[in-house]
Description:
Blueprint: H1 2-36, E1 40-49, E2 54-64, H2 74-84, H3 86-109, E3 115-119, H4 122-125, H5 130-140, E4 148-153, H6 154-157, H7 161-173, E5 176-182, H8 188-194, E6 199-202, H9 204-208, H10 214-229, E7 233-236, H11 242-250, E8 255-256, H12 267-277
Helix pairs in contact: 1-2, 2-3, 3-5, 5-7
Bound molecules: ligand C2E and magnesium ion (MG) (3 copies).
Protein name: Diguanylate cyclase (GGDEF)-like protein
Amino acid sequence: AAQRVGADRYQRHTDALDTSARNSAQMAAALRRGFDAGEFRLVYQPIVELPHGIIRGVEALVRWHPDGGSPVSPAEFIPVAEQTGLIIDLGAWILDTACADAAAWQARWGADAPRVSINVSARQLLDPDLPGLVAAALSRHGLEPRGITCEITETAVFAGGPALDTVRALREIGVGIALDDFGTGHSSLTLLRTCPVTTLKVDKSFIDELNGSPQQEAIAASLRGIADTLGLRAVAEGVETQDQADRLHALGYRYAQGFYFARPTPAAEIDLALALAA
Ligand code: C2E
Ligand code: MG
Ligand code: MG
Ligand code: MG
């Protein structure tokens, strides 16, 4: 009997592995089909200046609508796209689409046009063609490099090596480099010595805890202080309440992003918001 239970368990375990492999293989295939069928869209979330909430930038966030239905979270499909390598084609599409929208905003709003932030995944940073791709997209759409910021994560670059070389090459082109989810990695401060960063995006976890605790305020203030001292801009991520916005402003934060100000929305709605403010 023990033998059978063991055999059963092994069998079930194998089933479970097969199922998850099949699901991710299925998702991989669906992603590829969806990409070829044009099922991906970009939405943009405003990055605002405190205290008045003027839109200074937008972050491009990708959405996948399988069969035109409700979207699947990028947190779910970006890792699969990274594993299969689809992120290279998808990333090129995101880059081109975001640059096209940035150029339209540039043409319509001139000096008031929002800077456009584009998330670049770890796998893309290992692609030696990325800097050339970015330079080509900028010139194809007639964009100044400083109008674009690439958002990277600490984990993608902390080991140095080719990913860090790519970031340096991107910075040499003149685009901004933002460290996303800043403060949550293992080497946040060390990275600032080696990585040519222009913006720190202070992770939502630090903002969530801003509720009057002197310790949390001290941490948020220090992160902003590091940015100031190094001549970087600090953006507070995931601001959900007016109280958080007020506290951030009091702590000297100039830029913020979060549902309190605006949800991610299609490009046309960013234009509406800019038109209302003009
Ligand atoms: P991220 O780059 O840190 O993007 C911020 C995420 O936080 C977005 O989720 C955004 O909708 C969400 N967010 C913004 N404000 C708030 C808030 O006040 N409260 C809460 N609860 N959430 C807020 P989203 O769009 O689901 O994206 C999740 C992650 O997926 C992104 O984190 C990024 O790592 C990745 N991602 C999204 N779009 C792209 C893309 O185009 N390319 C790549 N490589 N990764 C992407
Ligand atoms: Mg980001
Ligand atoms: Mg972020
Ligand atoms: Mg984040």
